[in-house]
Design brief:
The protein is of the alpha/beta class. Helices cover about 30% and strands about 25% of the residues.
Length: about 500
């Protein structure tokens, strides 16, 4: 069995049922299957072969999922690109992955043109509408036969190369197999108590494993309908929920804050929503309470915890459990083991904080071309998440902190070192450190502490604009403070906890 089978199977069972609704089109399962199959054959005719990486740079929409299923059904490795990245970040993904082809939306023509000469392994580029040196999407699709050859893809074959930021400041590609995706699918369906024929609105970007492997693939496997949202607009989303009679909604706490704070939010019909899931950040008790008021037909909130390297699910707190287990992310999923360990990887007693680790068939194969990072992340078969947690006597897990200094802002993972490296390239900056600070709307926001070179002059706005040039917008600092020197220990390491404590002491 492989991931491509999920689409073919649902198309055979529900050919006339709607599968995908997006800005581009409304696709039945039969139409989705036909277009994806033609794309598969066109890819093979263009010279792509099993194991080649195909990069996808799209907002949520039917082209993304068509290209994705076209690639994986014939053994190509789908490599989604964060559409919020700037040119140099996109070029890194294309080159590091060794991508053979790039499929992108028309809104990314300029950045694709910008990076083309820097990505020598990319043999061809496809975009709706085409362009100079770019193949037109519909013309390319029309080259294919609706019955491509069966290459015999198995669960052990690579399916996805999903990039996730690392502490080195450069994204790392997690190699996820067909088996990883399928086992995650079974785990998540059981954990979220999903059923056939649901209508799900998918707001989270499909370049994330949560949106792609959970929110979308679950609906596809169970014959449901997925409404893909290309750009988040609170009122438009509420119109979609009302018009499409959406049953399932998923997102980060920051997403729900924005939705509920819209002045006309309560005037729309939300009674069709019967399932609400949250992930990517801690879900506060108050946010959960407001969600249950906002979506009155839900009986609780499914709190999902995981990471890209686990494809992504590790634990899920069910709606019923959420009534009593406040702050918990639930129990380990059925086909997976999880525990909390100390610095020597020994299990710790219940109630004691340590690092959460997991082991199971959903754990990635490893990091692309990074054997040392793989060996550090997966030890004795156990994936080390880098998250500090404890487990209670009933087996429920609670995430208490991040072992690393990762910042989660609006559901996006941000690693300070990447921003620090950009700051240190500025000719006026002598030293810099980045920490996260609480943000009522986004969960956390980025704060930079900067030391200027002697005689240099620089303002906060200039620092933020400089970062905006070199990094995706969500990574830029929202606040900049200038210091004479950063606090460091005897070995020279920046004392980030002191930066946080000084912020609190100053009443910020």
């Amino acid at each position: 069995m492989n991931v491509g089978f999920l689409l073919s199977n649902s198309a055979a069972k529900h050919p006339l049922q709607e599968a995908v609704v997006s800005d581009y089109s409304r696709l039945t399962y039969a139409r989705f299957e036909e277009r994806s199959a033609r794309l598969s054959d066109a890819m093979l005719k263009a010279g792509l072969k099993k194991g080649d990486r195909v990069c996808l740079l799209f907002h949520n929409g039917s082209p993304f999922v068509e290209v994705y299923f076209a690639a994986v059904r014939v053994g190509l490795v789908a490599t989604p690109v964060n559409f919020r990245f700037v040119g140099e970040e996109i070029a890194f993904i294309l080159n590091d992955s060794g991508a053979s082809a790039l499929f992108h939306g028309p809104e990314f023509r300029a950045v694709a043109e910008e990076v083309r000469d820097r990505c020598q392994e990319v043999r061809f580029t496809v975009c709706p509408g085409g362009g100079a040196g770019v193949l037109d999407y519909e013309d390319f699709l029309a080259r294919g036969n609706p019955r491509p050859p069966d290459p015999g893809i198995s669960e052990s074959d690579q399916c996805q190369l999903m990039y996730t930021s690392g502490t080195t400041g450069r994204p790392k590609g997690a190699v996820i197999t067909h088996g990883n995706v399928l086992w995650n699918l079974m785990n998540t369906i059981l954990g979220r108590e999903d059923r056939a024929g649901q209508v799900s609105v998918i707001v989270g970007p499909l370049y994330h494993t949560a949106a792609l492997n959970n929110h979308f693939t679950i609906q596809l496997a169970l014959g449901g309908k997925s409404v893909l949202i290309s750009r988040f607009d609170p009122e438009e989303l509420l119109r979609v929920i009302q018009r499409e009679q959406v049953n399932v909604i998923s997102g980060a706490p920051a997403f729900y804050h924005l939705l509920m704070q819209h002045p006309r939010a309560w005037s729309y019909d939300r009674s069709s929503i019967t399932k609400c899931t949250a992930g990517a950040d801690k879900l506060s008790k108050e946010t959960k309470r407001k969600l249950l008021e906002f979506f009155p037909k839900t009986c609780g909130v499914y709190d999902v915890y995981g990471c890209t390297e686990a494809s992504p699910c590790i634990t899920i707190l069910t709606a019923e459990q959420s009534k009593d287990k406040h702050g918990s992310v639930g129990k380990a999923l059925p086909f997976l083991q999880a525990m909390v360990v100390d610095e020597l990887d020994n299990p710790v007693p219940s109630g004691q904080v340590g690092e959460l680790v997991c082991k199971g068939p959903n754990v990635m194969q490893g990091y692309h071309r990074l054997p040392e990072a793989t060996a550090q992340a997966i030890r004795n078969g156990w994936l080390h998440t880098g998250d500090l947690a404890f487990m209670d006597d009933e087996g429920f897990f609670y995430i208490v902190d991040r072992k690393k200094d990762m910042i989660v802002s609006g559901g996006e993972n941000i690693y300070p070192r990447e921003i620090e490296e950009v700051l240190l390239c500025h000719p006026a900056i002598a030293d810099a450190a980045v920490v996260g600070e609480p943000d009522e709307l986004w969960g956390e926001s980025v704060k930079a502490a900067v030391v200027l070179k002697k005689g240099a002059a620089l303002g906060s706005r200039e620092v933020i604009e400089y970062c905006k040039i070199h990094l995706a917008g969500y990574k830029k600092p929202r606040k900049v403070v200038f210091m004479d020197a950063l606090p460091r220990n005897a070995s020279g390491k920046v004392l980030k906890q002191r930066l946080r404590e000084e912020r609190k002491a100053a009443g910020e």
